[in-house]
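Input:
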Amino acid sequence: DTAVSQTPKYLVTQMGNDKSIKCEQNLGHDTMYWYKQDSKKFLKIMFSYNNKELIINETVPNRFSPKSPDKAHLNLHINSLELGDSAVYFCASSPGWGTAIMNTEAFFGQGTRLTVV
Amino acid sequence: KQEVTQIPAALSVPEGENLVLNCSFTDSAIYNLQWFRQDPGKGLTSLLLIQSSQREQTSGRLNASLDKSSGRSTLYIAASQPGDSATYLCAVSRASGGSYIPTFGRGTSLIVHP
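Output:
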């Protein structure tokens, strides 16, 4: 069973389109994240949600809107896609603060490679 | 703001060598430190997690140490194999709003040749 799964794995789309990436975790974690990995392979936090509430928004353009319908899902919707949005987007999850789980390990999905043409 | 630096950026070694990958961070108020492996075109695989109260963790040929006061961690790979070729990423987590937020270094790209 995949712990953190994201779909689609590949996404090719034209500039100006709106697209969504879905993420689900079956680990019972309270916290979920979205990271962007640029062409130089640097991973940068975009958003963090804890129990469906937004915790971190790292100066991401308003065109990016995360949605957490429940604790196990954190989807990423992107409006008016631009060439610079091309990257690999990773979803991740980890136990939250004060959890009874002693191991606070973060788990990552396999990534979604977004190409804007 | 936490900054994580990994040295060296790239490493190419013959099979069998023992390796040391370094990670340093500027803010010692971390909750944990995690080492990941990323293969080309793939996701991140967690290798080792060290809680801030711990000094080291071991898994097979891998050993990671943490010196929180000096802001350093080391990943030691014993008897390297071609299958170890990948990018190794260090991430330190801070506590924020009920979550732990991992901040990554830029990674060490490792090639182990036969």
